[in-house]
Amino acid sequence: MKMLINGEWVSSQSGEEIKKINPSTGEVLGMFPAGTKEDVDRSIDAAEDSFNSWSDMTSVERAKILYKARDLIAAKREELENLLISENGKILREARDEVNGVLDQIQYYAEFARKITGDVVEGDTSRRKIFQYKVPYGIVLALTPWNFPGAMVVRKLAPALLTGNTVILKPSSDTPFTAEWIVKKFVEAGIPKGVLNLVTGKGSEIGDYIVAHKKIALVTMTGSTATGQRIMKQASSNMAKLVLELGGKAPFIVWKDADIKNTLKTLIWAKFLNVGQSCIAAERLYIHEEIYESFMNKFVEITKKLKVGDPTISDVGPLINAGALKSAEMFTEDAKESGIKILTGGKKADISGKFKGGYFFEPTILDNVPQNSKLFQEEIFGPILGAAPVSSIEEAIEKSNDSIYGLASYLFTKDPNFIFLAAEKIRFGEVYVNMPGPESSQGYHTGFRMTGQAGEGSKYGIEEYVKLKNMYVDYSGKDLKINTIRDDIF
Ligand code: NAP
Measured between alpha carbons, how far is 178 from 195 in angstroms, rounded to an integer? Predict the structure, then answer.
């Protein structure tokens, strides 16, 4: 693959490339450029040079390009689905769902073309007004993760571009090809040269350099909390605005009056979607003590029916890379050493044939996990879920909030008092009540604590990409009276 810098598809200036592995087979899928600091500089210069003409266009004109990109993606959606399967290891149904999300988000943001408004405010004296404009920040750096490699890319590109910013996209090194495919569609749709640039390469090698670059005005990043913290430090050198969507550790509360079938459907989705590699994945299961045993039996029974293997025909695909597989193994080893009982799963899945070398892990359920254990405190990001019984609403809320993360949470109950109390007291950006996620384009995806800053989606998310500036105007035609200056000297 190639990078896109100033409208040209180019190799890394050093000529170096990085290997990308297909997670389902363990075989090499392809090579991508290891971008250098010089590549970064060139892309940022291009984004700077194109900013004036791009931001001078109206949002309506820019939206036409977004709609066109959307149509071009829709026309070739199967290619994108196949890429999500080979590059990320998504199962077919999830790949299709993600492409639906990609199209929905571009459409949603493009529809804002006529909806971003400012204010006209009265001045302190008559015949004075303050015009409050929403203007683009300038150059946006978009750093994206691998777990939803299509949706996360467009969730940043579409609002940033619509509002007149120019963009440097640095995708995850685990999913560079999906990003390239999407960027090509934006180029085909008519994005002028320099407005959108794609730079690939290891975040650990070029990340600090791009984030700290003096010309970057806004960094929007979805990824781990550790990387988010590092970005905050680097961005102190340019005071870039930060939109950080980081880790999660969703509590999933099942009350004794819950609709069990709907709860189980949602739980299977919330835990095994993308093999648990989702920021809104269920990571802690709190069940009312009176139904704990019966619910767990059913949960285990259904989980055992999930087919693991070939993503085109299975329910659960591979983890993203060898490191993720190792991490899943360590979590279960730790659990065993702490005496936690494994009810099902607990090891690398044994897949034969073409997929033998893939990073498959068995769907795993753990019993009676203590609140202070690693399993309940650290983000697992794999197909592993621990459960614990709880006896009161207060206990369920208190334990849910006992996490450094605060993104998604789930509650299954018919008790309206619990529902409204939870909405108030569960300090998470999203509380899904009696329903699954994921977040909608018109919802504001945001989190408390170490989950980050700002958010994406909805009018609030799009407004992260515009800065409010003010023009003060006096149209009285009178002599100016300035309280602190003597008039007799003029
Ligand atoms: P990650 O390792 O933090 O990487 C995220 C992005 O940052 C990648 O493009 C990465 O590039 C880049 N990066 C790494 N080091 C950098 C540095 N020093 N400076 C600048 N950029 C740097 O996260 P991930 O493993 O891809 O994604 C998993 C995490 O994302 C999980 O914690 C998950 O909860 C979180 N997530 C959150 C949300 C949300 O909405 N809150 C959604 C999805 C995922 P390289 O790949 O080249 O290292």
Answer: 19
Atom of ligand 1 minimally distant from the CA of 445: 40
State the DSSP code for 137. Answer: -
Sign of CA dihedral 396, 398, 399, 405: positive
CB 57 within 8 A of CB 166: no
Catalytic pick among 81, 245, 283, 439? 245
Query: Residue 245 catalytic?
Result: yes
| Structure-token match 């408390």, residue found | 448
* DSSP code of residue 306: -
For the CA of 248, the closest atom of ligand 1 is 34
Average pLDDT of 388-405? 98
Q: What is the DSSP letter of 301?
A: H
CA of 222 to the centre of ligand 1 (A): 6
User: Residues enclosing ligand 1, CB less than 6 A?
Assistant: 143-147, 170-174, 202-204, 207-208, 211, 221-224, 227, 230-231, 245-248, 279, 379, 381, 407, 445, 451
Report how far apart, in Å, the C-alpha atoms of 159 and of each of 168, 187, 232 are. 14, 16, 22
Ligand 1 mutation pick, 224, 275, 441, 445, max ligand atoms within 8 A of CB: 224
Classify the C-alpha dihedral 241-173-88-448 as positive or negative. negative
Atom number in ligand 1 closest to CA 452: 41
Assess contact for 395 and 289: CB atoms under 8 A: no
* Alpha helices (runs of H) in 426-483, residue ranges in sequence order: 458-462
What pLDDT is stored for residue 334 in this prediction?
A: 97
The residues that bridge with 10 in the sheet, in sequence order, are 3
Nearest Cα to Cα of residue 249 among 339, 438, 381, 437? 381
d(CA 27, CA 64) in angstroms, rounded, equals 40
**Four-CA torsion 221, 224, 229, 231, nearest 10 degrees:** -30
pLDDT > 70 in the chain, percent: 100
pLDDT at site 407:
98
Average pLDDT, stretch 304-330?
Answer: 98
Q: What are the Cα distances from residue 301, in Å, to 28, 162, 345, 411, 433?
A: 36, 48, 12, 22, 24
Q: How far is CA 318 from the centre of its chain?
A: 20
Chain position carrying tokens 């093999």? 275
d(CA 379, CA 400): 14
Percent of the chain that is helix, strand, coil (3-state, to 5): 40, 25, 35
**Mean pLDDT to the nearest integer, 398-426:** 97
For 78-131, the DSSP string reads HHHHHHIIIII---HHHHHHHHHHHHHHHHHHHGGGGT---EEEE-SSTTEEEE
